Every structure is written in structure tokens, then in C-alpha cells.
Amino acid sequence: MTDSPPLPVAETTLGPVRGTREAGLDVFRGIPYAAPPVGDARWRAARPHEGWSEVRDASAYGPSSPQPHRVDPVLGGHGSPPFDEDCLTLNVWTPAADDGQRPVLVWLHGGGFVSGSGTLPIYAGDPFARNGDLVVVTVSYRVGALGFLFLGEADGADSGNFWITDQLAALAWIRDNVAAFGGDPGNITVAGQSGGAFATLAMACRPEGRGLFHRMILQSPPLGLTLPDPEEALRTTRLFMNLAGADDVAALRAMPWEEIVRTTLAMFGATARPGRWLLPFWPVLDGVTLDRDPLAAAAAGAARDVDGLLGWTRDEATFAFAFDPQVDAATTAGVTDGFFRAPGLGLAEARAKDDVPLRLYQFDWATPGAEGRFGATHCLDLPFTFHNAERWSHAPFLAGADPEEVEALGTAMHRAWIAFVRTGNPDHPGIPHWRPYDEDTRAVLRFDTAVTSSAPFSLEEQSTDGEDRLR
To answer: Which residues form the Carboxylesterase type B domain (predicted)?
Structure first.
């Protein structure tokens, strides 16, 4: 018998961590990047962790941020226990914890600002690490009321957008420590989807985010959101406090997180409006962590030094409205355009004028799930970019999909994402030349059973397509 190789150990600025060896990769899970936001630290900006002196076990995921745990008709669910407020951890997949100086991919999950975690198997980094020789990091951060509730002057200087302080703390930790895991701190790409993509652009526009990453992949960022100002956000907070039965912030801080989650569920019903994509909590223009809408800031050049891919799915809004008899196809198409496609194109136009172009894509592949009602819905590109459709067997939106189509399209997208992370150029032999967006060609790469390059749909064509798919 031969002795098993020793488990990988990495020295971090907070202390040493011991991971596991899994199918040719070194894997480290549940590494704290900031202090637990518990007790008086609830609804405070992320704070430094005190660290540890002994080797810390990093073989198991940390808890996810507290959130509703339920089955939904599109994804099948987007959060699983255990849950705990002590959730500010990250996970690393690497070919080896050595001095390899590999490109780094950081993943920020979405979830309507109320769900998701860096611990979900669908977001595990092993496909990218193995297929791309990358170091991959997934991040858990505060969601729902714990990450987004705005407390204003009642909370002093720490008011607002606690989620972004978590993510900035994680990126600072990655910059300072990824070399110990075989990564190159000078070649970091942050990728996010939906709320995670919104956050990525927001950090790229913030002074604190400068230099923490060098490229970004924005999958379905809801850049058409109209962000509330402090007065508007406080109205949401007062509604939340009324539903929770809390008279002041001290009472909120004393509540068990389980009660916070129950009140979050009540917020869905209290804020529902016909034809509105329901988001009970929003990022807020608090003047501290966000002083300008990220779309406006980026269009004015705030993130001009960060190269990027940006795209959307053809039928984003069916995610929310496919089963809603009160919402017609034209409304659905209009929400897709207003929240995602039009602002994405607007940002690309602005960047092209500034001579710092983005590369755009549209995901057109329509799933047969739900008798075709979904079309190319929000989140449907995720199993393809991660190339891990087998991990989405619980998701109704992939039901009935042709395995050969899924495999071929997944290979094309996954390789493009890897190429961009490695070099800044997503081209590879399996797709047409992916041109940067410019004012002359307005090129958008279209991912479907065939991958093509063309100018984007007009608004009229988009609305017609939506009507056909929802009949």
C-alpha cells in the first residue's frame, strides 16, 4: 500500500486552512473572509475577521445566508439549509494550491436579492477549474432583509447596502490571498448573474472596487431597475418593521433570524403589484456605498478600465410571468426589454463611444419545459455557462431538453467564458468571431442550437417573439 498524499494546506492572511483533494483538484470550503455579522454587527458593514492560529479545517461549506426555503416552478429552488447569519465565507477550487499564477474567476450568485449562496452545487467551481486551469472562488454574502434593509440615520454611518460591503471584503481577501491557492491576483475576473451581475458592475464603478478585478462577465444584469433614494427605502423599512412587530432597530436586532425570514416572506405579499417583477428589497442609493446608479456611472466611464462580456436571455421575464394569467405577452416582452436588453444595449453604446467596448450576447435557446412557456427564460443560460446541466435535474426549466443540444451549446458557451477569463478574448474554434460591440455593426453573439453573430432584435421583433411563445 502507498500512503495517501497529504491534504492541501494554504497560508492565508487570517491563518492556515486545510482543504481536500477531489478528482484532481484542491478544494477549500467555508473560509471566512469577514467577521460574522451577528449580534450588534447585524446591519453593519462587513468587518475584518480576527483570524486563527491553528490550521483551520476547510473541507465543508459554511452556512448560507438566512432566506426563504421553498420550491419554485422555474428553478425548483435556489437556496438550501443550513442557514445562519454567520455566512460570510467563500470556497476555492484550484488545480493545485501552488505558485501557478493561474487566472482567477470569482462567481457572485443572483437570486432577486433574497436568495442564493456560494455553496449551491449548481455554482460549484470544479468545471471551470478543471476545464480552464483556473482558480475559481464562489462567495456567500448577506441577502434579503439582512443584506438590503435600509436603516438610515437610525443606524449611523453603516446604513445601507450591507451586501456590497460583504462582496468588497471578499474581493479584497481574494486579492490578498489567491496566490496561496495558485492564482494570479493581477488577473481576476468577476462573473455574476442577475443580482450578482448588478453587484459586479456596481463594484466596478466604486472607488473601493478599483483594482480588485480586471474583467467582468455580466449575465442578465437588471440594469433597468430604478433604485430608491433613502426616503423611498425607509418606507420599505417601515413596512418591514410593521410586519415584524418591531418598534425600533434595537428590537429588530434582537429578533431571531428565523423571524426576519418569516417577515421577508410576508413582504412578498405586501409589496405585490400586477405585472411587476416582485422584488421586496432593492439596492438603495444611500450616498455611502452607492451614490449613483451603476448603469449611469458605467455609461459615464466609471468602469472603463474593466473589460467585459454582457448579455441577457431572449425571454427574461417569463421567469416571473409564464404562469400568470393577468400578464399578457406584450407586457412580458416589455419587462424583458426594459429591465435587461435596452439598458444593456445602452451601456454598450456608451462604452463604444468611449472606445472601451463590451462584447454582447443574447441567449436564444428555448427550453421545451412548461410546454414551451419559458422560452429562453431568466437563468436558463446558467447550466450552459457552467456546463453542468446534470446538476440542474431538479429545475423544471430544463425538463425535456435534448441532451445533445444541451451538450453542444454548453461546450460552446463554457469554452468562451474560459477563454475570456484567461485572455480577455472569448473566441475559440467552436463559435464565430465574437466582435466587440461598436456603433457600426452593433454585433451581438446569439447562442442557440447554432451560434451566430448579428445586430440585436428591434423592439418590435422582440415583442412579436414574446407573444408567439406565450400563447
So the answer is: 8-326, 332-452
Active site residue 393: no
Q: Taking the model in full, what pTM does it have?
A: 0.95
How far is Cα 212 from Cα 303, in angstroms, rounded to an integer? 12
Percent with pLDDT over 70 in the chain: 95
pLDDT digits (tens, 9 = 90+) for 236-270: 999 999 999 999 999 999 999 999 999 999 999 89
Identified catalytic residue from 49, 109, 214, 378? 378
Q: Which residues contact 417 (CB under 8 A, 6 or more apart)?
A: 128, 191, 217, 309, 385, 426
pLDDT tens per residue across span 64-120 = 999 999 889 999 999 989 999 999 999 999 999 999 999 999 999 999 999 999 999
Tell me the three cell numbers of residue 375: 422560452
Say which residue the cell 428591434 belongs to: 458
- Please report the sign of the dihedral spanned by the C-alpha atoms of residue 193, residue 86, residue 46, residue 138: negative
Comparison of pLDDT for 164 and 210, the residue scoring more: 164
* CB hemisphere CA count around 249 (13 angstroms): 18
Specify whether 316 is catalytic.
yes
What count of other Cβ atoms lies within 10 Å of the Cβ of residue 230? 17
Instruction: Kindly report each contact of residues 411-417 with a partner whose C-beta sits within 8 Å and lies 24 or more positions away, as own/partner.
Output: 411/387, 412/447, 412/451, 413/381, 413/384, 413/385, 413/387, 413/447, 414/127, 414/128, 414/131, 414/384, 414/385, 414/386, 414/387, 415/131, 417/128, 417/191, 417/217, 417/309, 417/385
Amino acid letter at 461?
Answer: E
Q: In this structure, what are the phi and psi dihedrals at residue 220, rounded to the nearest 5 degrees?
A: 55, 50
Catalytic, 78? Answer no
The structural domains of the chain, ordered by start, are: 1-226 (3.40.50.1820), 306-471 (no CATH)
Burial group, residue 318, by CB count within 10 angstroms (0-12, 13-18, 19+): buried
Catalytic residue among 65, 115, 140, 194: 194
- The catalytically annotated residue of 214, 220, 316, 463 is 316
